[in-house]
Amino acid sequence: MISYITGTLEYQSGNSIVVECGGIGYSMMISGQFMNRLPAMHSHIKVFTYMSVREDEISLYGFYDRDELEVFKVLLSVNGVGPKAAMSILSALTVNELRLAVVSEDVKAITRANGIGTKGASRIILELKDKLRLEDMIDAAYEDSMNGSRVGSGGVAQSDIDTRANVVAALTALGYSGVEAGRAVNRVEGWQDMDEEQLLKASLKNII
Length: 208
Description:
By secondary structure, this protein is of the alpha+beta class. It is built from 10 helices and 5 strands.
């Protein structure tokens, strides 16, 4: 099993790339989200991988980081979702957007993926409710904050974690500004009696 490949990005066409490592060019399919984050051609790159083996085909799929790979594997656990469908979903949604769609039961968001209809999206939500956790999205938000990336000024120091701070961090990880996230959370009435998932759903209604 190939866990990841480190080498040089030699070629990109459509949703496929070729990474040269040790004189061998590895061709793999990647998501649209990963495509948007590719380095310049002939640059050094590390790609996490998943090998799909069928009777008539062996395919290699590449992922930006371990988180995207793990979410891909979780998608494969859904009845009727194969590697190509899972990759289509990860092209339409970031991993955190998918987590949010599952938590908030947003069927419409998941149907943005090519080949995924309302019935399929509903099945994904039903089967992944206990597998794609809000906590994972929050952890990613704090990691981004520590790395000085997307969360930016809207991030919350880990020592100040509480229910509202966690939800603000989750929203900023999805691309909302700290101001937007803070206002949305502050406008929720009765938040003291809500857990993080309930507060996230209520806060989203104040943004969308």
